[in-house]
Amino acid sequence: xxMIFGIPGPLLFGQLLLGxxxxxFYAMLSLGLxxxxxxxxxxxxAHGALFMxxxxxxxxxxxxxxxxxFPALILAPLxxxxxxVILEKTIISRLYKLDHLYGLLLTFGLSxxxxxxxxxxxxxxxxxxxxxxxxxxxxDLGFMFMPNYRGWxxxxxxxxxxxxxxxxxxxxxxxxxxxxxxxxxLVAAFGVNVPRMVTLTYGAGVALAAFAGVLAAPIYSVNPNxxxxxxxxxxxxxVIGGMGSIMGSIVTGFGLGVVEGLTKVFYPQAxxxxxxxxxxxxxxxxxxxxxxKAA
Amino acid sequence: MTISxxxxxxxxxxxxxxxxLRPARAQSPVIKIGVLNDLSGPYxxxxxxxxxxxxxxxxxxxxxxxxLTVEVLSADHQNKPDLAVSIxxxxxxxxxxxxxxxxxxxSVALAVQSVVKEKNKIFLAxxxxxxxxxxxxxxxxxxxxxxxxxxxxxxxxxxxxxxGGDSWYFLTADYAFGKxxxxxxxxxxxxxxxxxxxxxxxxxxxxxDFSSFLVQAQSSGAKVLGLANAxxxxxxxxxxxxxxxxxxxxxxxxLLMFINDVHALGLDVAKGLVxxxxxxxxxxxxxxxxxxKIRPKSPNNWPNMIHAxxxxxxxxxxxxxxxxxxxxxxxxxxxxxxxxxxxxxxxECFGKTTIREDGRHxxxxxxxxxKTPAESKGPWDYYKLQVTTPADEAALPLAEGHCAFIxx
Amino acid sequence: xxxxxxxxxxxxVLMVVLIVVSPFVLYPVFLMRVLCTALFASAFNLMLGxxxxxSFGHAAFFGMGSxxxxxxxxFWHVDASIAIIFGGATGAAFGLVLGYLAIRRSGIxxxxxxxxxxxxxxFFCLEAPFTGGEDGIQQVPRGYLFGxxxxxxxxxxxxxxxxxxxxxxxxxxxxxxxxxGQVLKGIRENEPRATSLGYRTDDYKLIAFxxxxxxxxxxxxxxxxxxxxATLTDVHYSxxxxxxxxxxxxxxxxxxxxxxxxxxxxxxxxYLAQAGAWVTVIQGAIFMLCVLAFRRGxxxxxxxxxxxxx
Lengths: 295, 408, 310
Prior knowledge:
The complex is a heterotrimer of chains A (about 300), B (about 400) and C (about 300). Chain A is mainly alpha-helical and about 300 residues long. Chain A has helices at about 10-40, 45-65, 70-90, 100-120, 150-170, 170-180, 185-190, 195-215, 225-240, 245-265, 275-285, and strands at about 5, 5-10, 140, 145. In chain A, helix 2 (about 45-65) packs across helix 8. Chain C has a domain at about 20-235. In chain C, about 70% of the residues lie in helices and about 0% in strands. Chain C is built from 13 helices and two strands. A two-stranded antiparallel ribbon of chain C has the order 1-2. Chains B and C meet through helix 1, strand 2, helix 3 and helix 4 of B and helix 1, helix 2, helix 5, helix 11 and helix 13 of C.
């Protein structure tokens, strides 16, 4: 057995891999936040609650309608995305004329309402959601047993994140989106329906969160607190990565997951704080974030 | 005009807060029981509304038939010690509550017990786990009713070691309860000649991913994985242990687990797990009869030892209050508790039991194993009984507890 | 005096009258909680209402003040006044450090950074042995004030808390109506212009932040004394959210808003404790309602109706 810094090699590589999986969730969630912030200039505090709704949607689809995991991967984001669109049209759009802080406050209130309602209806113990049969079991990688499902999570997250990045940075739709962020009236003058684009972007960001929720459902119990457990760390990720950059969110998300995983090996009690410590360091050295554009 | 409108508005806003300061005094003294527990958080199903239902059940059965007027109040402490202290003070000072019931979450229980002592009321601590409530923090105003960390450690821990589990690795919630449970269990492991190969303490609350700690546990080579945690953490750690195949190379000891957690996990994940409770609905005719009374009122959440304990404690208290007379029973918490300790306890849930001088209600500890899906023949048919630890052996010996108010 | 306008003076007198009369009618411990929350919210309002910076992590200062006061009372047996001063000093110290890091950014970034920094403080409190983790610091004695006033009597404690609140309230008001306060207002209205006039805006913002944090620490310390307990709830982000809600509901940037908000929110929590999970839902709904339709808050609406600045 190889020993690295006194830690058995298998353990170290195992933790790195696990950190990558955590990072996948951070990446997807901060990506959704970045997309929404980019278009709407709103910090969507409700992101955690919407992530939770995605997990619940998958659970409800399974238990009330009998629809399994793979269709749920598409249906749940769709359902929650539509909910997001409704939210945007009815409530969030009223905030555009106001100071950005009201957006934060409104979505914070929204997260309380959503989480409270689900807690009322389903309690806090957590509801079981089975890993789909085809993804059951583990593969012996030599240095650790990797549960197949977790490997799938990393893969799916990477695919989704990179596709989103590609759509935004490399397609004409993405270009229009980016242009509308910088100068909405000018883009509207070109005949583009900007409000509709804004609404759909919010829906897309929400759908991303819900997709992450479906991925998370078999790993954590489906419970109303799962969103708030993540959201505070994701905020730190976002500050570190810099809000303006899509690729920044992805890289920082995965990166911080790995850092957290390593901390768990060497000094487990600090694993919850390490992301914030990194944030402090980044703030001192480079206030706009690692990939952020100048404030 | 400004002033009068303003004062009217302010007064109107304050109206909901208006409440008389004098404690409630009815014509015939009303006994008030306050059930304080977690109604909305991680312990909602293991205590929560079902506990309140069980308290009300006991009141229904006994009170009016014996000429007692009883009122049951309930509040959510949200697992916050300061909120609990605030509610408890208000209940005692303003609402004339006599008995504080349940209070899960050890840190909360420790906080309120000093208020109970200060006001000379009664605390029937059914929910909290820490054995400190009958040792370093014991009080003549308090009785713990169904379990403590010592009992869990002895029963589950002891059984595991006897079955060949002589090397342990702990996954511990890094706060008072988890640490106490780990240390109590370690005591038993070592006493039986086993050893603890390592432990991982994780930040509580908020940790939902135990995969890295489980990987560490696996690489330690220990035979047993001891879970020194509860509620949602236990459920998550077990699910993830399954995912990582930890259950194939290690036995899992869920040191604190309730039937509601098994229900949340599902039998195909929970099968084979070993745990300790002092009550199971299908244990005997008495428990079945009790459960049939509670089921229609709480169909999705069947009673566990805490729920049964709330019923049992309420019933016993009311019997004593009836014997003393309501007015006498309300006067001094210490005197009423002493009476409760003198009178033997008997009910459907726990049969015939006694309460020890340090405030420990002595009940047997049952070691259960969770059935496989094939073995389960009906709803909530989850447990098979493995070992019974008799009541007097399941609790920490009185001499070792060093409870301050017991004269040696 | 203190820069109150005529209507504000009347309102202030009314408030003092209410404070003096209410403990004979309502439960003093409940009122003390209202007063501590009101002081905390007023301190918070200094940042949000007057400087225009939303700090989403103010619980860190409130909570650290609470812990330090509790600890010094319980283990060092100091005079209650010293313990509260320690609480305030702790709040100020943390405010200096966290403020220094956060002030570099503004608007939403400031909010997010303060939230994240407060989370770090929370996790620190979780691990540090002196805070007692989940148990918190319990059985904190009320002790004596100035060596001879016994605080274990609820009514005596009430008068002390009332004095602390009124003192803090007046101090905040004095800050706002001083030349320093005028500069802060100028910064809120148009920061580049203030900079161009030669003011080092970051320093002004930081000083205001530290003052706000100091008073939050005092509020936290007083609360720990009243209830005899300091716990993790005091540093949790939900407490930060709650103080935002309190100030928003009462009226941002108004003098009496935070106090009114404290009264309403504390009463609501009190009476909804029986309703379990609905408390969160209702709090969230109030938040949303305030942002969408009720941005001026209770006092703001009253003030607008009478065309007064309250």
